[in-house]
Write a structure and sequence with these properties.
The longest helix is centred in the N-terminal third of the chain and has 33 residues. The chain has 431 residues and is an all-alpha fold. Helix 2 packs antiparallel against helix 15. The protein is built from 16 helices and no strands.
């Protein structure tokens, strides 16, 4: 039977401090990656970037992100979350600062490539930390909470970047935002330990955190037995859960990157919104979307508490989120700035709810020893889709000057991804 604390014992809450650290790391992660999108109209005019050039720069980030994900998960599983996460944020923070030295499309491409390599470790490390610190019943909620940092970063970024750019220039915006990660790295190294190594975790909370250990141990034993027989990437790739999750990520991950990197450009070209006027629309979009991760995590967790199976709860929550994205197909036909902002806000809200559950699927179907590896593999698939989509979006805009086809594909992508999960995802988890 799983170990759970006695009813009269008070369960501690130190595990939520870990979520706070993951939240701030994800916030910084998204501040650093959004700066270029915010400054695209300014930089494009100064160094004469074409739409295709910008698409290739975004592709450089996505390609590096994909390459990083091929190896970073195994490194995190091997060397541990604490050291791996610290090194990753040091790399991406340095890369963020180096954007200030770029003076051409090639220079920005190199800086974005380095940024992508470092940032590729954020979600594998955060998901592994969540698996280390939370029982399965709380993981989707914890994931939704720390993933809300992506939206807070997107909300804070326009305020910081606009002020720094207007007052000091766009180069200072990159340097200041890039430096934030070094502060977080110090806090992380001082605070983070495994639950069983932390002096701030009581016996009751530790038992609560480790309540799934019996099931996880059985899965780990199966994994170890398979490894003895030569289990590696080939076996991992042959599993139905792997096929379903990676296909889903490939099909729809690019949509979030599209909203993140092209929304400022879309608002400027369609409604004449300049960098100063951009602040309020972006704050509205990402403030609203920040609640999506919490909504998605709460929805699946509530279904589990009501007796639904974990696969059913996750897929039901994912379907709700996929349907909420569909209305963006109407955006090119609206003549209203705030109608467009509203539809993008709902889609970003839905994406975050989707992300909370699709990230958590990895810890549902795989033992802790494989979580970072599988998260990386799924992220790699999503990034490959992002590389192809970023170049396609840039060239489509260069050729047609219209966002119609892009929004049409974005609106249907999540339903297609849900279909992949429905087709391949097993009805039983690792537990």
């Amino acid at each position: 039977m799983p170990l759970t604390p006695a009813p009269q014992q008070k369960i501690g809450g130190y595990r939520w401090s870990v979520v706070a650290l993951l939240f701030f790391a994800t916030t910084i992660n998204y501040i650093d990656r959004q700066v270029l999108g915010m400054l695209k109209p300014v930089i494009a005019d100064e160094i004469h970037l074409s739409e295709a050039d910008y698409g290739y720069i975004v592709s450089a980030f996505q390609a590096a992100y994909a390459i990083g994900l091929l190896v970073v998960g195994r490194l995190i599983d091997r060397f541990g979350t604490r050291i791996s996460y610290a090194l990753a944020i040091a790399l991406w923070s340095l890369a963020g600062c180096l954007h200030a030295a770029a003076r051409s499309a090639l220079g920005f491409g190199i800086a974005r490539f380095a940024l992508g390599l470092g940032e590729s470790a954020n979600f594998p490390a955060a998901i592994k930390a969540t698996a280390e610190w939370f029982p399965k019943r709380e993981r989707a909620l914890a994931t939704g909470l720390f993933n809300a940092g992506s939206n807070i970063g997107a909300v804070v970024s326009p305020l910081i970047v606009t002020y720094l750019t207007v007052v000091y220039g766009w180069q200072i915006a990159f340097i200041v935002t890039g430096s934030l990660g070094f502060v977080w790295m110090i806090c992380w190294l001082l605070v983070y330990r495994l639950p069983q190594q932390s002096k701030r975790v009581g016996a009751a909370e530790l038992a609560y955190i480790r309540q799934d250990d019996e099931a996880d141990k059985a899965a780990a034993d199966d994994s170890a037995a398979a490894a003895a027989d030569g289990f590696d990437w080939r076996r991992l790739l042959s599993q139905r859960a792997t096929i379903g999750i990676t296909l889903a990520r490939f099909v729809c991950d690019w949509v979030w990157w599209f909203f993140l990197f092209w929304t400022p450009d879309f608002l400027e070209k369609s409604f004449g919104v300049d960098i100063r006027q951009m602040v309020l629309p972006l704050i509205v979009i990402y403030t609203f979307s920040s609640f999506g991760g919490i909504f998605g995590g709460y929805l699946s967790s509530a279904l589990i508490r009501r007796g639904r199976t974990v696969p059913f709860a996750r897929k039901a929550a994912l379907l709700v989120c996929a349907l909420l994205v569909v209305p963006v197909v109407t955006i090119p036909g609206t003549g209203s700035l705030w109608a467009a902002i509203g539809l993008i806000s709902i889609a970003c809200f839905a994406h975050q709810g989707w992300a909370s559950n699709i990230y958590t699927l990895v810890s549902d179907y795989y033992p802790r020893e494989r979580v970072a590896t599988m998260t990386s593999l799924a992220g790699f698939a999503g990034s490959v889709g992002g590389v192809l989509a970023a170049s396609a979006v840039g060239n489509l805009l260069e050729l047609t000057g219209s966002y119609f086809v892009v929004f049409l594909m974005a609106g249907l992508a999540y339903l297609a991804a849900w279909g992949c999960l429905q087709l391949f995802l097993p009805r039983k988890t690792a537990a």
